[in-house]
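ARCHIVE CARD
Drawer: 12
Card no.: 0347
Subject: one protein chain, sequence and derived structure
Cross-reference: see card 0346
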Amino acid sequence: MSLPTPAIVAQSAVRRIPRSILLVLCGVYILAGFVGRAPWREVDMQAFALMRALAQGQTHWLQPQLGPLLPSDPGLLQYWLGAWAIQWLPASWSSDWIARLPFMGLLALALACTWRAVYGLARMPSAQPVSFAFGGEAHPKDYACALADGALLALLACLGLAQMGHETSHRLVQLAALAALFYAASNLRWQPLRAGFAAFLAPQALALAGAPELAMALVSLVIAGLAGIQTPKLPQRFTWMAWWALALVCTFTLSKQLNLWHWSAPLQRDWASLARLLTWFSWPAWPLALWTLWRWRRQLAQPLQQPHLTIPLGLWIATLAAMLLNEDRDGALLLTLPAIAAVAAFALPTLRRSLGALIDWLTLIFFTVSALTIWVVWLSVQTGWPAKPAANVARLSDGYQPPFEPFALAMALMASAAWLLLVAWRTRRHRAAIWKSLALPAGGTVLGWVLLMTLWLPMLDYGRSYAPHIARLQNTLPAQPGCVQTWGLSIAQVGALRWHTDWSIVPTASAAAQCDWLITANPDEWQASSNAYAAQWLPVRNVLRPTNRDDQWLVLQRRNP
């Protein structure tokens, strides 16, 4: 016998967010951060360098590398997607922007799959609100749509999604694949054909993106859950189990054939740092998720009869465990966001008015102060008033000249005006839908991200791209230096040299390459080297990065060119 649900929702409380507003909100969030910026340091630039190398036929598709340099990030699919985009789209377009197009689609896919997964979960009989004696309770489909809207707002509101969700890396591919797997597990009852298709492809994509262990663990959990269900209402249960079992076998075979296994657990964990990361990364979804666990605690005692809770909760626990066993904690924690947003959505029908008001006030204060800070710093950099923020920027970024960009200013003004309208709407007295408590967090996160990617984008590009460092390097070498060797440079650094210059870059310091110039990112190690090959080079200059004097490249010239 199933326990009564704690959700008490009237039909008047399940109004949908207008689809046009929801699409604009998601579209702005996706475009901001992908469009208009240069490739950023390390992860972004490494992926782009290997995508170009694949598109130009300079490396093997099953083992991408740049000369002798192997990538530090796992997976293959992220490089394939960018390389295919560069090959198939017009060559007149900038290839760094082209390489981001598939990742824009992946972020949109992650958002859409999360919405659809919660929509499927909320339609399940165990998730329905209490029936009223004289009618008037929420209609199942309207109720499911309102909860799905709330889950999408919760996902957009998570602070950790902003930067990592806009990188051209394996992390975003894993996020989209995991969201598709979440959709498949949640919609077997409602869309068996599409869910089966996603159940087969998503684990393969997750494995190709560098997480075969997680893919197989999640598929195994779904199979175990289907095997444990004891109800005659699922006549296709064994067919679904066979389909998921086939996906498991294919994932294992693919991972073994392509040698995708790379299990490595960290030897030491900084628990204090981990607690801080967990606190802000999924804010404000995690407090709502904990509220869900408290209000639905009696239903959780019957997990097999409450799939609307056990599916997202099982995914949340599995991804958290994977994060604890992964050296890349930030990237692994990104994969918890679809599940935690789904769990948080089921807090909305049980949320007390006082708790909703507290969330609104905290959100309003935090994002308004953050937006004002971004505007004040931009005004200071542009006009010199107030003086202190501009002085701090000048001290941290040597040589930075702030440009004035009217289009970025217009976008920032429109985003700020939309925020004021949202605040005015939220503070009016009206019958709001159950997702109302997540409107301000989602809108505030999108506002902050848009302001950063418009007003602060030139400063961020100056600090996070390789362009200013390479511009200083170009002033040291002759205009046509011929080939330039590198020693101790990463794939991202070599890729940046190839992208920002027309030099012939040889990523090796072997004696076989007869170049007149050499660049190393390890001046101390080079100068401490006493081998005969190092003695052939004469140090010319240390080139410092404008925003970090500890990051320097040593330029050397061959003694006998």
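Annotation on reverse: The longest helix spans residues 353-383. The chain has 24 helices and five strands.
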